[in-house]
Amino acid sequence: MELKGKTAVVTGSARGIGREIALHLAKAGANLVISDVNEDAGLQVIEEIKRLGQKAIWVKADVSKSEESEKLIQTALSTYDRIDILVNNAGITRDNLMMRMSEAEWQSVINVNLTGTYNCIRAATKSFMKQKSGRIINIASVVGQMGNPGQANYAASKAGVIGLTKAVAKEFAARNINVNAVAPGFIQTAMTDNLPDKARETLISFIPLGRLGQPEDVAKAVLFLSTEASAYMTGQVINVDGGMVM
What we know:
By secondary structure, the chain is of the alpha/beta class.
């Protein structure tokens, strides 16, 4: 699964799953555009990619804002002349029970997770259509398929990402542009590292494989969808969840 000479834009790639996706794509030979709102962490990822012998640039962008998403894509195009892979990974949580959830908590999650994905796809559409090729990988979540108490906003945003993926896949298929989604389950990140032991054990009890996933588990699925190995796949949702949703 080689990406030599390809250019990838990964949003939300300063930390966690996004960082691991960017590093996996770089190891496969891609040049990267790293984008996030966390500049210090993002610049560290740039240095890691350069040590792998690949080119990388940093673009600070809040994808919930259409003008910043447009700037992100235009900067990528002006630097590398083309984009081959767009990974929409930027996402946030603002968990609360529905009866207590404020409008601000609802809207902020929808704005970043769903509207941010739309903004980046729309900004890149002309480029992908013109070159008649490309890969778009949207990071969804199993929560968007099965729901989760206290995460109505997050579940709605990720269910929306899945629907958006399928609609855009049908629109772009005739131009040889593949659009797919990856839906992670419970992945070991800084957030899960802070869970009490009992809460962690409860999470793991829902996972048939009996362990939390690792960021690289998600990154490997994204890498597969970025290459010619997945050339006959579009409009699909790949669950990386240890068997939670069967």
